[in-house]
């Protein structure tokens, strides 16, 4: 990578880069009401856009359908690039994922469909013989202890991990927990199906032979299948698959943005950010420090005084007296065991301050600290301190300090990464042929209209 990619750019410049026309080939020739757009000939369904728009309006009733359509289009381009540049482990590195990503996506799809069409689904369920989910169940299996042992091993065996190998999974597929009949056909829920859907805690429950949990999870699996079956019959399999793809792409783009330092967690890092930070030069750090010096303020020294007493009751008495306006010096001469009469001293922020100095440096100016027990074991005798900071003097971290180097390098890395992502988006838009269904728009498209 060229060093020029690491030249600092301001946030305003980055925002401008993101908004620049990208010379995409955008047309408005889609007339099929089932389609929202075509991207290089591939369809984006109106069902996906409408579903995501309705879900967005639950959080913000002002959300425009056009904004959602544009997000789906841009996500489809960026998600494809994300998959081409990163494998799953790289793309989602550092993210805490309790469930397998495909399982989490299936659950998100089911939850979205249920949230949008739950009433209609419930009505359809009530019209079936029996009028409930139970009426779909043809047979409910109860695996024997021996069958479970063949999958999970003996209960008394010590487990270092709760993962099934290929042979164990094959046995689990042969254990049927539910046989059911949906309007579209019959099927089964197996132990392997339930196992696949668990996080670590769920797998522990299965290993521990929690029968109620096993059946509850089998019924939950069936409930999800009913939601998908109803939705596919109602809207078509292609439409539901496209919504699932749109949800997956939203997650992939979010992960791609985090790779480039964009997201809610400003502390999040990635291999890309670490590499770019490692390429920042001392000259760039110095330049960043000069332009952002106010980001590197620090407490240089404080003028403080304190009172030390032997026990908490005395400390509370002293604190109440001072809070009521008692003279600090006079109170110190009467109660303090420190021997300095409550005199003011300057404490510099340097080296490794002891705990009392750290407390003074952290105390707001002019405020009286509540009584604080000095560090000691729970059964050891300890003194109690009350501190008052009279004056705080601010300064700046040294430009050649490690703290400055670390903060500046990471800030420059994020700027460079975000510039790369902006350039990638422009490149993808330039190369794409995007055809839009104008009939779905409720306002102009802020990015795509500029790209013509």
Automatic annotation (TrEMBL):
Entry keyword Signal: yes
PpiC domain span: 299-377
Signal peptide start and end residues: 1-24
Enzyme class, broadest EC rank: isomerase
Enzyme Commission identifier(s): 5.2.1.8
Alphabetically ordered keywords of this record: Isomerase, Rotamase, Signal
Organism domain of life: Bacteria
Matches recorded under Gene3D superfamilies: 3.10.50.40
Reaction(s) catalysed (UniProt annotation): [protein]-peptidylproline (omega=180) = [protein]-peptidylproline (omega=0)
One of the Pfam families matching this protein, by short name: Rotamase_2
Family label: Belongs to the PpiC/parvulin rotamase family.
Protein name, UniProt field: peptidylprolyl isomerase
């Amino acid at each position: 990578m060229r060093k020029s990619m690491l030249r600092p750019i301001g946030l305003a410049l980055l925002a401008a880069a993101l908004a620049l026309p990208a010379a995409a080939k955008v047309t408005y020739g889609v007339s099929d009401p089932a389609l929202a757009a075509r991207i290089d000939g591939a369809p984006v369904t109106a069902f996906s856009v409408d579903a995501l728009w309705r879900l967005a309006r639950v959080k913000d009733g002002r959300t425009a359908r056009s904004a959602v359509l544009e997000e789906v289009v841009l996500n489809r381009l960026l998600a494809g690039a994300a998959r081409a540049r990163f494998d799953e482990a790289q793309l989602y590195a550092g993210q805490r994922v309790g469930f397998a990503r495909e399982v989490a996506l299936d659950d998100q799809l089911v939850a979205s469909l249920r949230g949008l069409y739950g009433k209609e689904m419930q009505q359809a369920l009530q019209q079936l013989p029996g009028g409930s989910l139970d009426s779909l169940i043809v047979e409910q299996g109860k695996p024997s202890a021996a069958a479970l042992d063949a999958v999970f091993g003996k209960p008394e065996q010590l487990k270092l991990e709760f993962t099934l190998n290929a042979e164990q999974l094959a046995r689990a597929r042969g254990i049927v927990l539910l046989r059911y009949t949906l309007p579209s056909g019959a099927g089964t829920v197996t132990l392997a199906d339930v196992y696949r859907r668990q996080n670590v805690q769920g797998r522990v429950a299965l290993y521990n032979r929690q029968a109620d949990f096993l059946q509850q999870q089998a019924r939950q699996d069936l409930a999800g299948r009913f939601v998908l079956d109803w939705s596919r019959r109602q809207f078509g399999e292609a439409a539901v698959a496209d919504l699932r793809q749109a949800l997956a792409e939203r997650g992939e783009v979010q992960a791609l943005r985090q790779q480039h330092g964009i997201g809610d967690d400003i502390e999040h890092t990635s291999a890309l950010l670490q590499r770019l930070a490692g390429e920042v030069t001392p000259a760039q750090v110095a330049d960043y420090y000069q332009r952002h010096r106010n980001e590197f303020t620090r407490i240089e020294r404080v003028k403080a005084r304190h009172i030390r007493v032997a026990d908490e009751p005395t400390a509370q008495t002293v604190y109440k007296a001072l809070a009521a306006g008692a003279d600090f010096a006079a109170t110190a001469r009467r109660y303090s065991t420190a021997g300095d009469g409550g005199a003011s001293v300057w404490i510099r922020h340097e080296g490794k301050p002891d705990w009392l100095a750290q407390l003074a440096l952290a105390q707001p100016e002019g405020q009286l600290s509540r009584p604080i027990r000095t560090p000691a074991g729970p059964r050891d005798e300890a003194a109690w301190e009350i501190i008052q900071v009279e004056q705080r003097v601010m300064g700046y971290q040294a430009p050649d300090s490690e703290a400055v180097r670390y903060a500046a390098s990471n800030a420059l890395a994020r700027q460079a990464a975000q510039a790369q992502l902006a350039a990638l988006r422009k490149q993808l838009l330039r190369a794409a042929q995007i055809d839009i269904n104008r009939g779905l728009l409720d306002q102009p498209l802020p990015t795509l209209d500029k790209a013509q």
